[in-house]
Design goal:
The structure holds 3 protein chains of 3 kinds.
Chain A: H1 2-16, E1 39-41, E2 43-44, E3 49-50, H2 57-61, E4 67-73, H3 75-79, E5 86-94, H4 103-107, E6 113-115, E7 130-131, H5 133-147, H6 158-169
Antiparallel strand pairs in A: 1-6, 2-3, 4-5, 5-7
Chain B: E1 12-16, E2 28-34, E3 37-44, H1 52-56, H2 61-69, H3 76-91, H4 97-125, H5 130-150, E4 159-160, E5 163-164, H6 172-194, H7 198-204, H8 212-218, H9 223-227, H10 234-237, E6 248-250, H11 258-282, E7 301-309, E8 312-320, E9 326-332, H12 334-339, H13 342-345, H14 351-361, H15 365-369
Antiparallel strand pairs in B: 1-2, 2-3, 4-5, 7-8, 8-9
Helix pairs in contact in B: 2-3, 3-4, 4-5, 4-11, 4-14, 5-6, 6-11, 11-14
Chain C: H1 4-32, H2 41-76, H3 92-102, H4 113-129, H5 148-156, H6 159-169, H7 173-204, H8 209-215, H9 221-224, H10 226-240, H11 251-254, H12 264-288, H13 302-326, H14 332-360, H15 365-400, E1 402-404, H16 413-417
Helix pairs in contact in C: 1-2, 1-13, 2-12, 2-13, 3-12, 4-6, 4-12, 6-7, 7-10, 7-14, 10-12, 10-14, 12-13, 14-15
Classes of the chains: A alpha+beta, B alpha+beta, C mainly alpha.
Chain lengths: ~190, ~375, ~425
Amino acid sequence: MIGTFKGLLTTARWLLKRPVTAHYPEQHLPVQQRYMGFPALLMDDTADEPFCTGCMVCVRECPTQCMSAQMHDNPNFTDGTSHRRKIINEFEINLNRCILCGICVDVCSFDAIEMSYEHELASYARTGSRADLPQLLNLGRRYVDMSGWSPANAEKNVAEVALAKRAAAAAAKAASAGDDAPADEPTEGGE
Amino acid sequence: MTAEQTYDTVDMMLNMGPQHPATHGVFRMVLTIDGERVVDVTPHIGYLHRGSEKLAENESYGQVVTLFDRLDYVANLNNELIFCRAAERLMGIEPPERGQYIRVILAELNRLASHLLFIGTYAIDLGAMTPIMYGFRERERIQNMFESVTGARMMHNFIRIGGVKEDVPADFVPRVRALLDDVERGVHECDRLLTFNEVFLARTRGVGVIDLPTALSCGLTGPSLRASGMAYDVRKDYPYEVYPYLAYKVPVGENGDCWDRYYMRVLECYESLSMVRQCLDQMEEGPVMAQMRRIARPPKGEVYVHGENPRGDIGVFLVSDGTDKPYRVKVRPPSFCNLVALRPMMRDAYIADAVAILGSLDIVLGEVDR
Amino acid sequence: MRSKPVQLAIAGVLFVGVGVLVAVFTLALALLGEPDDNVTALTVGKIVIALFALLTLITTLGISLVWLERKQLGRMQGRVGPTRVGPFGLLQVVADGIKLLMKEDVSPGSSSKAIFYVAPLLVFVPSFVVWLTIPLSEDLVVRSLDLGVFFFIAVSVLSIVGLILAGWSSNSKYAILGGFRSAAQLVSYEIPLILGVLSVVMVADSMRFTDVVEAQATVPYIALLPLAFVVFFISGLAEVGRTPFDIYFAESEVVGGPFVEYSGAHWAIFFLAEYVNTFVVAALGALLFLGGWVWPLGDLGQVPAVAIFLGKTYFLAVVIFWVRATLPRLRIDQLMNVGWRLLIPLGFASVILIAVQRFYGWPTWTLTLMSLAALVVAAWVQMRMQRKDAVATAQRYAQRAVEVQPSRRRPGPESQQA
């Protein structure tokens, strides 16, 4: 009897409290600072071109093979307005396959891909969740607007932060060149 | 019609699952029932088989972590932890202490989330509708915390070989402390609502009893084994990470019935809360990632590492052939091994007990089928 | 919580609603008229119209409980319940009903079609027919039968047939299990229900509902007969299959029991019957134990009387849903134990206590005392048998827990100081 009455009191107490429900379409809970939504490509505003050079590291490292990329010679490089020899030509991410693991962001050496805050990508079309280069850059723009990301304060960039931490921790061994991340980027497939 | 006439009864086969609401995913029990009594039970698994172990052979070590996220999808961080520990053991590296503290804090928070989910789903198996809402509310808070730390609510890919992905946010410690107070209230609420409820007691006490020798021979681990009276806890018996720095209790039952298995988990919730608090007290500044090459490439060799998951003793057997991809990954999933005990527990059960017993084992099919 | 004008508006709408209810009911009564030997097309037409009016009325009352339950359960669980359709989500039930009517009506290929489609009606009809004699206020009753209470019990049992037929004709294992469970459960709990009602009848000296209510003008019977009320309420819960007795359609065991194969409109009828039945039990509790439309401050007139009666009924419904929000479900054998070993003896105890009190002419307050004493004894026995053991076990576990002390000291400035 006592147990039942205690339970009844517990439920009755909640009758008087405020519900914790968030009314979804009207009320969006804010995502956290580090939230990893769908990946997006970022624009280099100084050169007016994507950061991405199409090096394919993310494509190869993706556990679900959800991306495809193709590079071409950068016309701006021949003009002299850019320092990138190669630039991304086509980039497609199948967001249905993406598992939001963030590995592509970790491996990218150019800060070109970031996990954006986008998480509501429902669409009526079957191909609605295939994002091509312009769409990805669009997502990237929105992400930059929302998060205030810039190459200088790439807080979310793991490689950068890890490097900085490592440098701080191993100040004594700063001379050793063994942990320079980009230099350690071997091509895969050499089993 | 004479008085001596005997009636021939035929046992009925009842297919419970794979789409039954009480089988926690896609588990199928073929019950042989005589009226309301269960005569025999045959578990059928494999509906969620994704070949994770085989897939892991074609993924680099960093990518395998994402597969482990999806084994026990209720306790992701615990699973990530066990694989990363295996790879680290093979490579002979040890993550820095702050990294270990962060790992343990996250793992214990995830254990809390998992146990809260268990309390809720167990209540709903027994027909009580409210605890799952309370449990989910608190679990949601924990997942918000995970989101602010790891960037994801469930599939984190945060614990990496050699440490964790990045340091925790600046306001982590005060936020977790506030979170712990909230969650403690929530656990207490579920506890008060369910533990000594007369109907709940009637449904769980003395149901699905398994004695210690049978439990051991079935390979039962985790809270389900402790409910039968053996204080086996990997954290205690084979300490890892920073668990040796912590003071905690390992709750032990004696009857081995459903109520004990439930109550062990409630008590463990309180222990996890205290462990996280101790970790927060002890944690100091420092690096979170060990110094290592960016691409993990363990030397040739093999290693078996096990740890305490919310569901029991999870083990990983990892064979490396010296390349950047594991040669073989074998998981000893606690849910799968605990399922072996289903049959001995089902002795003299009713159909309703079958649900209660299966619920008390707290299986996660992602882990059973891999 | 809400501002004053909104509260007033809600109260006004509720009062108008009760007024409409009374008006429709009165109209239907007028249409029905007195029993007549010469049947003409006109009388038949009148009766049909009146029946439709009553059906709509009762259905509305029934589905109002759906909204109430969803809202209340939601709030008790920290949610909000329905909010989308209509103000406060009031029209959600209507939307659901329309959806169900639009759905395809599927039946299993191997089911016995005729029985399969008749079964929902067999469940619904008794829950409608009992309203023949349930009064909303002194005059607002279709037929105030002398044996009203008896009629109610006799008719409400019939819905079991529908449940069994639904389970059997579906040709599904879950459905047949649910059907058997419902048969066992409803038949056993009919007895304590009758014993609880019988206690009231003995005290009131009448089986007519209006007499029973009038007899409670001074003291409602819940104060005189708490034991009978408890027995009645628990077995009433079991009669309509509310938690903790929702065994025959237990979702996590037999996945909906007899209803598992039904869809669309036929399922909607089952659903409606369930809530109308719940309303009937709550109304019966209000009539027999809470004093129906009687108000201590004297006669108020038709509409307030109905409002008071409905208020008491909804109060009991809220308690039913409150119990649902709190308790798990019993097992079938425990259900039988509660019925046969606890409720039936308690029911007989109640009847015997009343008989003794009536025979020796003791003052009525002795009834309260004796009832409470019996309840306390029952609760005490339960605690001795069950709770004490569990609490002791829990305390033992708290002590038995193996304590693990830090086996190594953490190397660091803080711990070195400590």
